[in-house]
Amino acid sequence: MITGMAALAVARPALGLEQTGAWQAWRDRFVAPDGRVIDDGNGGISHSEGQAYGQILAEVFDDREAFERMERWTRDHIANRQDALMSWKWDPSRPDSIPDWHNATDGDLLRAWAHLRAARDRGWPVDQEVPAAITRDIVGLCLAPDPRRPDDLLLMPGAEAVSQPDRVLVNPSYYHPRAMRELADAYRQPDLARAAEHGETLLAELAATGLLPDWVTVTPEGFVDPRDHDYRSSYDALRIPIYLAWSGRGDHPAVAGMATMLARADLPDHVAVRVEADGAVTAISNEPGYRAIAQVASDQIVPLSPGDFATQPYFPATLQMLAYVAHAESRG
User: Fold this and answer.
1) What global pTM score does this model have?
2) In angstroms, rounded to a whole number, what is the distance separating the alpha carbons of residues 185 and 176?
3) What is the domain extent for residue 284?
4) Which of 2-16, 24-38, 188-202 is predicted least confidently?
5) Does 10 reside within a domain?
6) What span, in angstroms and rounded, lies between the C-alpha atoms of 49 and 92?
7) Residue 102: enclosing H or E segment and its boundaries?
8) DSSP string, 85-99
9) What is the average pLDDT score of the chain?
10) Which phi and psi angles does 45 have, rounded to 5°?
């Protein structure tokens, strides 16, 4: 049962022919008939994040059939852990399909939010035990005290991620404050709202360093390089301004910081999509999906056209869809 009210009023995106056509183009290209969301830029794998993105977009564009198709595939293939969380990766090239049963917290968070939105905003007959259980297990398994301030809670990237009293691994792009607060409110999990509040502080602290990294380790002394990940700002961190804008925080310093990074490309109509810790720009792109991040970071309307999805790979195409929705819903 949904027990709370939304943290922000819902401003629905305008769904004209161009926007609806864009959704249909995205769906027809990346969602298989069985409901599997295909990451064609990453070897054709599927992951919990992609399934959740697809369900959120299906709810936004009022496509119940697609929502339910993706949910069936998710339940049948990756909702296979002993808790309510999902295995993060499904690989069709492997005989076992699931080489890694660990979860990715952002996928679980956004799947739960998609279910909450579907029931609350569309009235679809969604089993609310699913998002309630996911939210409960995120709180129980994926939060850890900040080693600098133990009363504050960090969102870990997975239930089995590195978490020690003096060292917690964090992926800053996993924070979606609006989703966290709405789930906390709906399912009576105040610790998730506490983590959202602290997450906005964490992102501001990182922005002040001049680098919004994909991964970082938090220690009692501050931020240090992660042991098992590159310390850079790239494809994970690109989502930070989308999620903050979606949460009504377009004024957040991390949004401005990412806008500055994106603007460092040295070719017209391109954006920087990978910057190393020393400040070197090592990848730029002119894909509409990556340029849409700069648009939402500058509080500009993100255009959608079916033609944008004819050739773009899954990830920038999906970011463009999410950026459009984020900007539209940030008006509420």
Assistant:
1) 0.95
2) 14
3) 17-329
4) 2-16
5) no
6) 17
7) none
8) ---SEE-TTSTTS-S
9) 95
10) -75, 170
Could you tell me if 180 and 196 are in contact, meaning their C-beta atoms sit under 8 angstroms apart? yes
Q: Please check whether residue 210 lies inside any domain of the structure.
A: yes
Q: Does residue 8 surpass a pLDDT of 60?
A: no
Closest by Cα among 25, 24, 54, 58 to 39: 54
Bridge partners of 238, per DSSP, are none
The CATH number given to whatever domain includes residue 112 is: 1.50.10.10
d(CA 248, CA 331): 8
SS3 call for 107: helix
Distance (Å, rounded) from C-alpha 110 to C-alpha 204?
22
CA nearest to 283, candidates 321, 238, 320: 238
Q: Which residue has the tokens 């022919």?
A: 17
Detail the DSSP E strand segments found in the chain.
46-47, 89-90, 143-146, 149-155, 163-164, 167-170, 216-219, 222-224, 232-233, 271-276, 281-285
Determine the Cα–Cα distance for residues 168 and 146; give it in Å rounded to an integer: 7
CA angle 34, 40, 41 (to 5 degrees): 155
Helical axes 48-60 vs 17-30, angle rounded to 10°? 150
Query: From CA 70, how far away is CA 146, in angstroms rounded?
Result: 35
Residue 251 CB burial class (10 angstroms; 0-12, 13-18, ≥19) = exposed
Q: Which residues are CB-neighbours of 201 under 8 A, at least 6 positions away?
A: 152
